[in-house]
Amino acid sequence: MSSIKPDSLQDVLARIQQILPQAAPAAAPTAAPSTATSFADTLAQASSSSAAYAAQDGMAPSSAAAPYQAEIEAAGARYGVDPRLLESVIQQESGFDPNATSAAGAEGLMQLMPQTAASLGVTDAYDPAQSIDAGARYLKGDLDRFGGDTSLALAAYNAGAGAVERYGGVPPYAETQNYVQQVLGNYEHLTSEGSTT
After folding, report:
1. Cα 114-197-1 angle, rounded to 5 deg
2. % of the chain residues with pLDDT over 70
3. Are residues 85 and 48 in the same domain?
4. Of 116, 144, 184, 187, which one has the fewest beta carbons inside 10 Å?
5. Considering only CA atoms, which of 173, 181, 127 is closest in space to residue 154?
6. 78 and 35, same structural domain?
7. What is the enclosing helix (H) or strand (E) of 15?
8. What letter would DSSP give residue 107?
9. Are residues 99 and 184 in the same domain?
């Protein structure tokens, strides 16, 4: 699945703006609030969000999380995990691509390994609702295991709880250390914005 680039949104928006004046005379007088105008407005908002995203280093645009916001909020409330932390993990794990599959075989938004997903009752790791729910539950288990220490829980999510326990902290793996820093950076940004979107 290819993603829409910010420039593509601008092109689509420009084309819609060209079409709208031509289509307006054909519309019935009672149909003044046209669906096309609402769609154009939506595209304009998405385009400006994408432009803001491009100016940030690795931060997810709010529009990326938007399709999954209800599931993120629900899972956060269900398991007592800050939705902004879940959003930050999803950004780092899959970039909000529900069809993401890693070279190691991790699947879906939360990049669960098949055996982990199965142990959490997931029947379709590419289903966003199942992935988010199971990933939140798994992350909550890591948070509980490591006394609420977010860095250690994230390290466990990435490298496994055994590695965190073996090293008595974040393992000395470059990938895991970078992962923890990136997720915490995303989380800090979302927290400072005071928003879960």
Report:
1. 45
2. 66
3. no
4. 144
5. 181
6. no
7. helix 6-23
8. B
9. yes
Beta carbons within 8 Å of 23's beta carbon, 6+ residues apart = 34, 36
Among 69, 39, 37, 49, residue whose Cα is nearest residue 4? 49
Query: Which of 18, 34, 55 is where one domain is finished?
Result: 55
Which amino acid would we find at residue 122? V
In a domain, 167, yes or no: yes
Q: What mean pLDDT do residues 81-106 have?
A: 97
Q: Kindly report the pTM of this predicted structure.
A: 0.67
Assess whether 93 carries a catalytic annotation: yes
**Residue 85 · residue 78 · CB < 8 Å:** no
Establish if 1 belongs to a structural domain. no
- Give pairs for 133-138: CB < 8 Å, separation 24+: 133/71, 133/74, 133/75, 133/78, 134/110, 135/75, 135/86, 135/89, 135/90, 135/93, 135/109, 135/110, 135/111, 136/75, 136/76, 136/78, 136/79, 136/81, 136/86, 136/110, 137/75, 137/79, 138/110, 138/112
Res 42: pLDDT = 38
